[in-house]
Amino acid sequence: MAGAMIQEAFGKDVELYELLGVGRAATSADIKKGYYKAALRWHPDKNQGKSDATLKFQALGEVHRILSDPDLRAQYDSTGCFPKSQCKMDWRPYFAKLFKPVTKQRLDDFTRQYVGSDEERQDVLGAYVDGNGDLGYIIDNVMLATEEDAARFEELVRSGISAGEVQLLPGLALSACGSAQAKKRQRKASREAKQASKIQKGMRKTRDAGDLAAAIQGRMQARSGDFLAQLEERYSGSSKPKRMKRPAAS
Q1: By CB neighbour count within 10 A (0-12 exposed, 13-18 middle, 19+ buried), where does 96 fall?
Q2: Which of 8, 20, 167, 234 could tie 34 with a disulfide, CB 3.0–4.6 Å?
Q3: Looking at the whole model, is its pTM more than 0.85?
Q4: Where is the segment annotated Disordered (predicted)?
């Protein structure tokens, strides 16, 4: 049942709205955006080595299914209990509907718009506060960020502190460039880059050009979440795009 999966993933006293970071008065758009952020956080590709990542990722799908359905949401709101599900969820069509194909052109266009923008700066400051000053947390939670952005992000944060926009938080000194944490992040990033390069080389040996392009597109889609939907939201002016990681460089 849906409730059993959600409780196994997040505990017996879990509150569905809190999992998505929204309030009970959230609109359907708020719920969708909250789901994107939570699903990105627990995407198995971003949490390799964490055995519970897949379970939490799938459980979040159930949370979204309940809160995005008016009848199921009303049942949950009135009883505080999870609506029962009598059938096993087929996740492939569900995620195919949510996670639309990513195009390189749109990815490039959005990257040029976002990186270095005031919106990115606000996202950096928001992640700085959420992560208690940890630069690693900022890199993990700001769209398109990699360890290469650490120095630039630290400068943005320190300028925000000087301007009184945010307070000096303890995690900044511990994770600043040149710290032991920063060196650990750099070693991890280097390992991941080598692993990604090795995977791509293996793919080139076993697939023709068409299969390789399709595989890379699928990999980008899995890592970045519903990027196309975010772009469409941005271009329509309806909402703010969510945070995500930059695809690993080839």
Answers
A1: exposed
A2: 20
A3: no
A4: 183-211
